[in-house]
Amino acid sequence: FKIIVVENYDEASSEAFKVMKEEVVSHEKPVLGLATGSTPIGLYKKMQADHKSNGTSYKNVITFNLDEYIGLPKSHEQTYYTFMHENLFDGLNIPEENIHIPVGDSDNVPAECVKYEEAMKEYNIDIQLLGIGGNGHIGFNEPGTSFDTLTHIVDLQEKTRLDNARFFDSIDEVPTQAITMGIATIMKSKKVLLVATGENKADAIYGMIKGPISEDCPASALQNHPNVIVIVDKAAASKL
Ligand code: F6R
C-alpha cells in the first residue's frame, strides 16, 4: 500500500483529485472505475471545477461504476445512475455512451452481470476508486463474500436497507438487492485508489492494511493487489 495521511476530508479530496487527474491526462483513453457514497463527492466536485476552469477534457474517458440497486428505474432519484449524473457526469464533457453503470432495472439481471463483466474485460480499468464501509466492505461486497466473485447480485442486509430508508418514502420501497462488481473484479483493475475519512472507518482501515487477509474484512483482499493508493485522514488512520 502507498498510504497518504492527511488532516481532513477536504485534503483527502484534493489528494484524490491529483491522482485521478494524473490518470485522466496521462492516458489516451482513460478507463476509470467509480464509486458512489459520501466519500467521493468532494473529489467529484474538484473534477467538475477543474473541467470548468481548466478545460480538462473527459471526451475520451470511459467509466465503470462499482454497483447499482436492482429494481429501480434509472430516473429514480435514489439510483446510482442519478447520483453519478448529478454529482459528476453532468459537469463534465463525457459522452453518455462512455458511461457504464450496471443496469439495475434490466429484465435479465444475471445476464446483465455477465455483460458488465465482459465489458470491463474489453477495456481494463486503469484506476478503480473505492470507499470502504465501517465493516470493511468494498462495493456491495459485505464480510463473508468470496474473493473469487465477479460482478454478481447481492441481497442487501436489513441494516443497509434500514440505513437507506430515510431516502425513500417507505422501507418497502428500499431495494432488496443490488448488482456489484465482485472482489475478483476489483482486483483486476491496474490501480486502486481507496479514500476513507472519519473515525468510524478506523477499524476497517486497520483491518484492510494490518489485519489478516480474510473474507471477514473484504478490503483485506487488497493486500494482494500490487498497486493500491490509500488516502486517509488522521481519524481514519488512528488505529494503524
Ligand atoms: C459505493 C460503494 C460503497 C461505499 C461505502 C462507503 O459505490 O460501493 O462500498 O464506498 O459504503 O460509503 P461512504 O463513502 O458513504 O462512507
Automatic annotation (TrEMBL):
Q: Which domain of life is it from?
A: Bacteria
Keywords of the record, alphabetical order, are: Carbohydrate metabolism, Hydrolase
Q: Which GO terms describe its cellular component?
A: cytoplasm
Q: What is its EC number?
A: 3.5.99.6
Where does the record place a coiled coil? Answer: none
Pathways per UniProt: Amino-sugar metabolism; N-acetylneuraminate degradation; D-fructose 6-phosphate from N-acetylneuraminate: step 5/5
Catalysed reaction(s) here are: alpha-D-glucosamine 6-phosphate + H2O = beta-D-fructose 6-phosphate + NH4(+)
Q: Is the keyword Calcium in the record?
A: no
| Location of the active site | 67 (proton acceptor), 135 (for ring-opening step), 137 (proton acceptor), 142 (for ring-opening step)
Q: Which PROSITE patterns match?
A: GLC_GALNAC_ISOMERASE (PS01161)
Biological process, per Gene Ontology: carbohydrate metabolic process; glucosamine catabolic process; N-acetylglucosamine catabolic process; N-acetylneuraminate catabolic process
- The UniProt record lists the Glucosamine/galactosamine-6-phosphate isomerase domain at 12-225
Q: Which Pfam families match?
A: Glucosamine_iso
Give the family, as the similarity comment puts it: Belongs to the glucosamine/galactosamine-6-phosphate isomerase family. NagB subfamily.
Cross-referenced HAMAP family: GlcN6P_deamin (MF_01241)
**What is the purpose of this protein?**
Catalyzes the reversible isomerization-deamination of glucosamine 6-phosphate (GlcN6P) to form fructose 6-phosphate (Fru6P) and ammonium ion.
This one is known as Glucosamine-6-phosphate deaminase
Gene that codes for this?
A: nagB
